[in-house]
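I have been asked to look over a protein record a colleague put together. The record follows directly below this note.
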Amino acid sequence: MTLPDAQNRLAGTVSPCQVFRQMPDNVRPYEKDPGRGDDRLWAVIATIGRVVRIADIHASHTRAQADQIWREQQVRAYLGFLQRCELPVPRYTIRSMSRAQLPRGWRPLPALGFLNGRMS
């Protein structure tokens, strides 16, 4: 292969940075910003009606997903009881947050804390 042929082949390639810049914001993967430091966390958020509480925080998204799944399994196990007592069923979601966004004195919410009124 001659030098001009190699340059023509490489001229058609696109770098990963160019592809990333062309992606819409809602499709871009989570990228760690070096200026942000290591204070980025993944929070499992419990919601009952208008009450929103941070159930737990995790250093990785994978651990937060596992915690969310486990909490949802616990709720499903007590779903019949909640429906008979006409209690609202909590929903769990995952959000990225910084350590500074945690409320002062925050404590993890027990998975079945909503049964004891710990959500209020």
